[in-house]
Design goal:
alpha/beta; four-stranded antiparallel sheet; 28% helix; Rossmann fold; 10 helices; single chain; 338 residues
């Protein structure tokens, strides 16, 4: 069963709720926010406000902690989730340090190997193709290398399955030195099998052409990595005009080249610089409500009380819920809850 995503004011003079979206002909994006009967425990590192965690929770995950270092991420997380937010540099994360933080908040501690699933999404700014001045072995990129420790190192969580997400450019020739070091460290995890692949969010019911690399780690006593088939059947339903029928085109930046709305929107980035051309000929920046809809973020997810720039910062850095959910469901069915 799919859930219609509610949009607040997305057109001048018009307030669209679920009924309004149906009347406008906007397709039901299949964000499965219902809780699944199969449950498993999970935690996140570099989880932001846990936007991507919505996809994990929808697949049956019960969040034990969400980690990020940002004040903004913590505020938004706590508005939207009862799971504890551990504000800490992820390089300091370990079962003892997380347990200490959880105990201080009144939660039970976490033992090594307690987590079924660990989701990691380290900083991508110095990996992204959008950054022409990136430094391969910057401090931010070293966070990717530390993911190996978080998974299976001496101070790691040793979950049954872990998934590391980043931008597809990590697998490019320009990032080969970083990727080589990362894969060498992965090879040192003797208790895990690992595989990686590049996937397009469009293939997984997400109306943005976000290409992402996913590296999956599976503890050897659990099984081997598994990957889902694409879930998108009708790609035309992901075109911008199919989701926002009052839009005829869009630009990247106010003066960018106008692109037709008969194609998917470009990847929504942290700058929130996408402009929309409406059927009446006027143009304006994309609203936060529209960004949420196009990012498959649940309508109930509260981004109020923060600025537009802050909202797009969070959305641009987030894992899209529709994208991650089928990967987690496949892991759940064949590895965690078989």
């Amino acid at each position: 069963m799919s859930t219609i995503l509610n949009v607040e004011t997305i057109q001048r003079g018009a307030s669209f709720g679920p009924a309004g979206i149906k009347a406008a002909g906007i397709p039901e994006l299949q964000l499965l926010t219902q809780k699944h009967s199969k449950e498993f425990t999970y935690g996140t590192a570099y989880g932001g406000p846990s936007i991507g965690g919505n996809g994990v929770t929808a697949a049956g995950g019960v969040c034990q902690f969400n980690n990020d270092i940002g004040e903004l991420q913590g505020i938004v997380h706590c508005k939207n989730s009862n799971a504890p937010f551990v504000k800490m540099d992820a390089t300091l994360l370990s079962p003892p340090t997380v347990s200490e933080a959880l105990t201080a908040m009144g939660y039970l501690p976490i033992a090594p190997e307690f987590l079924d699933f660990l989701l990691l999404s380290p900083c991508c700014q110095d990996i992204s193709i959008a950054n022409p001045r990136k430094t391969i072995f910057s401090d931010r990129n070293k966070l990717l290398l530390d993911c190996v420790r978080l998974i299976g190192g001496d101070t790691g969580f040793k979950p049954k399955v872990a998934l590391v997400e980043n931008v597809f450019n990590l697998a490019s020739l320009s990032m080969l030195p970083l990727m080589s070091v990362f894969l060498n460290r992965c090879d040192e995890l003797k208790d895990y099998y690992f595989e990686y692949g590049i996937f397009n969010a469009l293939d997984y019911l997400t109306p943005q052409p976000r290409r992402r690399i996913l590296i999956q780690f599976v503890r050897k006593d659990v099984g081997r990595p598994v990957w889902p088939e694409p879930t998108t059947r009708d790609y035309s339903s992901l075109n911008l005009c199919a989701i926002l029928p009052y839009v005829v085109g869009f630009r990247i930046g106010k003066k960018g080249k106008l692109k037709p709305a008969s194609q998917p929107i470009n990847t929504i980035t942290t700058g929130g610089g996408i402009w929309l051309k409406l059927v009446d000929g006027t143009e304006r920046p994309m609203t936060v409500a529209e960004g949420k809809l196009l990012s498959t973020i649940p309508a109930w997810f509260n981004l109020e009380g923060i600025t537009r720039n802050e909202a797009f910062l969070l959305m641009g850095n987030a894992i899209m819920p529709n994208f991650i959910q089928p990967f987690v469901e496949k892991i759940r069915d064949e590895l965690l809850c078989k």
